[in-house]
Amino acid sequence: MSLFGGPKTPQAERYDAARQEIVSAVNRLVAQEHGAAGFEVRDPYPGAGEIWRGRHATPVPHLRAVRALRSAVVEEERRALDNARGAGLTWEEIGEALGLADAADRANQTLALAAWRYAAMRVMPDEPDPEWAYSYRRDATADWRCRACTGSVHEGHPDNGPVDAERGHQPGCARFAAVQAAWRARWDDDEDDAGEVSP
Ligand SMILES: [Zn+2]
Questions:
Q1: Residue 167 in contact with residue 154, Cβ under 8 Å?
Q2: Does the predicted model carry a pTM greater than 0.70?
Q3: How far is the CA of 86 from the centre of ligand 1 (A)?
Q4: Whole-angstrom distance, CA of residue 58 vs CA of residue 38
Q5: Is the four-CA dihedral 131, 134, 138, 144 of positive or negative sign?
Q6: How many Å apart are CA 77 and CA 119, to the nearest integer?
Q7: Which residue has the higher pLDDT, 52 or 7?
């Protein structure tokens, strides 16, 4: 049950569980580095109930631990994206798992584009492309290791089409060959629809 009486969504339960893990991780990190000196006993606010009273990390160790956890989460997210795309999930499937569908809708973006932008540029659908994405010689890419060929793939903007976007598969990669075949078939279909003759 939530504070407002209804059953909690799976998403809310996942968040609550993650919050508890983070609080535990903060306390463990502070204890490892500072021992008992990293904690103080205080009420988080005046008149706080007994359950809130207790050991809390002192300000500087608290900030340092949270900052380290944040960096570690970003890195773990990068690994999870690499793992998912490397295993062959589509950007739609990745976007769905990341919970980007509603935000992509509101921003008039396909879920696939929203997921690729999130992986390549760390932005939500309603956020603009960051300047750095186009300020270097190479455009933004989502980077992952293909499980089929072990190639290190740097995947550019989906508008380029999968064949041009996916750079770095090893020669003879069966997965990339399938991508190329599907792409060719799609173009052939489009040409047939337009009444044109394929060369
Ligand atoms: Zn490959």
A1: yes
A2: yes
A3: 8
A4: 6
A5: positive
A6: 9
A7: 7
Tokens 């903007």 — which residue? 157
Rounded distance between C-alpha atoms, residue 139 and residue 126, angstroms: 20
3-class DSSP assignment, residue 112: helix
C-alpha 23 to ligand 1 mean position (Å) = 40
Q: Which residue has the tokens 């078939």?
A: 185
> pLDDT band for position 46 (50/70/90)?
confident
Kindly give the distance from the C-alpha atom of residue 173 to the centroid of ligand 1, in angstroms, as a whole number: 5
Greater confidence (11 vs 111) lies with: 111
Ligand 1 centre and the CA of 133: distance in Å?
25
Query: How would you class 142 by CB atoms within 10 Å of its CB: exposed for 0-12, middle for 13-18, buried for 19 or more?
Result: buried
Grouping H, G, I as helix, E, B as strand and the rest as coil, residue 40 is: strand
Ligand 1 center from residue 151 Cα (angstroms): 5
Q: 88: CA distance to ligand 1 center in Å?
A: 10
Question: 138 CA to middle of ligand 1, Å?
Answer: 21
Contacts for 143 with CB less than 8 Å, ≥ 6 apart: 82, 152, 153, 154, 155
Tokens coding 167? 């750079």
Domains of the chain by residue range: 1-79, 88-135, 146-199
Q: Where do we find the tokens 């903060």?
A: 26
Give 145's DSSP letter. E
Q: How far is the CA of 137 from the centre of ligand 1 (A)?
A: 24
